[in-house]
Give the backbone structure.
Amino acid sequence: MEFKHEFIKIEKERFVTFLDALMAIIMTIMVLEIKIPDVETLTDETLRHELRKAVTPLIGFFVSFGTLTMIWLSHNDLMRDIKGITKQFALLNFLLILAMALVPFSTALGWGYSKTSLAVFIYALNIFLLSAAFSILYGFSIVKKLIPVTASQYNRAKMIVSFSGMALLVIAMFLSFVNPDLSLSLTALIPLAHTVLTVFAYKFKS
């Protein structure tokens, strides 16, 4: 029985280090999608013109970077409270990593072709899957009693923001075929809401 227990365990410190390294790589890759202006004769006027074209992709970078930052903070809270890491829990983390790994691609696509409905839909879908993967991971941790269940105001606020964000992302996916700009604006609200919650976390102490 002891062998079975050890078989399903994974070393927590090594697991966290591995995930942090992967997330750092993914967040760094995103900036590579912001291209340096490539013109034969570079002048102040042509540079200004090229930089104006880079504004939307740059905004997309900040939005996605903020989204991944909030996921990292939430994941850090989860790992701080978790009692032990099982292989099932680890596999669900790789589902989260899969959604994260696609963010550089979907960001470049959605914000680089911000007027194209399908491109914006793919971006909104990716962010929704990212949020859903973390929600599944968190729910699994509660069901399997890997983390203590606390009813603090902060946790309640996090749950409200999380589910509201997923609802907004569903709306954003539908809106992408009607108004791509509005769809992207809704996706930008997700990291903003989490940032406000994190900044004022002291107001939600249990």
About this structure: The helical segments are 2-7, 12-31, 44-81, 87-101, 103-112, 117-143, 153-175, 180-199. The longest strand covers residues 9-10. The chain has one domain: 2-204.
